[in-house]
Amino acid sequence: MKFSSSDWVQQAKRISVVALVLGVNWASADDLNAGDTAWILTSTALVLFMTIPGLSLFYAGLVRSRNVLSVLMQCFSITCVVTILWLLIGYSLAFDVGNSLIGGLSKALFAGVGEEALWGTIPESSFAIFQLTFAIITPALIVGGFAERMRFVSVLLFTALWSIIVYAPITHWVWAESGWLFERGFLDFAGGSVVHITAGTAAVVTALVLKARQGFPTQPMPPHNMTLTMAGAGMLWVGWFGFNGGSALTAGGNAAMAIAATHISAAAGAFTWMSVEWIKYGKPSALGAVTGMVAGLGTITPASGFVGPAGALVIGVAAGLVCFYATNIMKQKLKIDDTLDVFPVHAVGGFLGIMMTAVFASKTLGIFAGQETISIGSQLLTQFIGAVAVMVYTAVVTWAILLLVGRLVGTNRVTGDNEVLGLDLSEHNERGYVL
Length: 435
Fold this sequence. Notes:
Elements: H1 5-14, H2 16-21, H3 34-62, H4 68-95, E1 118-119, E2 122-123, H5 124-146, H6 152-175, H7 180-184, H8 192-210, H9 226-245, H10 253-281, H11 286-300, H12 309-333, H13 342-360, H14 376-409, H15 416-421, H16 423-428
Antiparallel strand pairs: 1-2
Helix pairs in contact: 3-4, 3-5, 3-9, 4-5, 4-6, 5-6, 5-8, 6-8, 6-14, 8-13, 8-14, 9-10, 9-11, 10-11, 10-12, 11-12, 11-13, 12-13, 13-14
């Protein structure tokens, strides 16, 4: 039996796991599940741990020593700004019913999100804060595109506007029951489009608008402390279990398999990238290993709840290969100074994962449970339309936000002298790293 996109939408609405992920609030007070609630509370902590301190340390080790504090400060402050905005209107715009493009405002200031309100089998408050951690890490990922050259005031204003105008609407498109991509049957289990394509696309647009750092690409700019980066990478790997496993919103088999797929893809991505480096350059690098790990994690994210272990292995290997060459093309051929390779790892990986979800979706997992066959061709088209729409919207609106912020503050980029001095001193009057 084959299913059209409209058939798959109906299937998604009938399967509890996917219905929970995409916002069907149908439970009664008797449906509260303590195990599910405990798992989502744990996953919330794990995903926040991915940003502070995981991503913060990962990025801080990759920049030069005079900018390490600025990266840590940017990630920390983004956490604060997004949290406040999520409470005010972000959550409502993302998950209130609204229309096909944006949610309404009936949940502004978490209206109705009390102790008794449920989202499936968990308290709605736990769902809202779990989703907040996704809203936090997405603009934090963008930091890697403009690291070492963007003014702190611009970072804050850009994050605030981007979170409301880009992140919230796209989240609604993909994960809200009334969203237009959800209605088309678009599959994104944990954020391949919502998080990774948006962050990677915004990062490269920001890098192009701000232009390259002084000395790029002729002057070597190696990471100042790979130890910090390796530590941060380990935190990201562990935290991703909450990112993908928590997206099941239950403590059952779907969460367990999502975690298994996540771990397998991360390992395969890291080992593949490291092996390609070894063959091409004679030695494997720690930087290559952790970058491949992140590529594997980002690529499996949209598929994690829909594929089995074998599919996860193939996706991880593909992520390591494709993202490795995409990174080389960006730096060496196109000479685009996406400082920490956010676009080739996250946007390219996220796009690849979105497409491979249609190919490797398991007949025993996700919305295809119990079905004999799936129509891969029509789902590939749906996935492609969704991924391209997310990428184009993000690129255009990010560019407009950067222009607006630049006009408001005068310039988004630090002066040449301050770039040489380093953002730690020029923006924060502190030293983040003492030689």
